[in-house]
UniProtKB/TrEMBL annotation:
Protein name: PTS sorbitol transporter subunit IIA
GO biological process: phosphoenolpyruvate-dependent sugar phosphotransferase system
InterPro entries the UniProt entry points to: PTS_IIA_glucitol/sorbitol-sp, PTS_IIA_glucitol/sorbitol_sf
Domain of life: Bacteria
Species per Swiss-Prot/TrEMBL record: Streptococcus cuniculi
């Protein structure tokens, strides 16, 4: 296993947990998240990506594993430049939006400041 990305949640927007509950989506953004989006995001501390994100890579959140099923065509670019991606816990095999990473559906752990998010090849 090769870790290609690791970050920690440093702050949680007021509406971010609702996005998980209502839409099964987790929105990540680096510390420079625009004010109008910050309420819906989990801000992260790192945006260094050291490999390709492709189906079969595993998303790991606080030890819970979710296989990647589809990758939007700007996920890597957005993650590296802005720390910004949307993670959809829907198991879709086709990317819906360019900045969306799809993973197998599953129970999403309760995220908190300090939660660790990784991508492992």
């Amino acid at each position: 296993m090769t870790k290609i990305f690791e970050t920690k949640i440093v702050s949680i927007g007021e509406q971010a947990p609702n996005m998980i509950e209502e839409a099964n989506m987790l929105i990540l953004f680096g510390m420079e998240a625009p004010a109008d989006l910050a309420d819906y995001c989990y801000k992260i501390s790192n945006k260094d990506l050291s490999g390709s994100i492709v189906p079969g890579v595993r998303l790991v959140i606080d030890g819970a594993v979710y296989p990647v099923t589809a990758v939007g065509n700007v996920v890597e670019q957005n993650l590296s430049a802005l720390g910004h991606i949307t993670i959809a816990f829907d198991g879709s095999c086709e990317g819906s939006l360019p900045g969306t990473l799809h993973v197998e559906a599953g129970e999403i752990p309760a995220l908190k400041e300090g939660s660790v998010i990784e991508l492992v090849a």
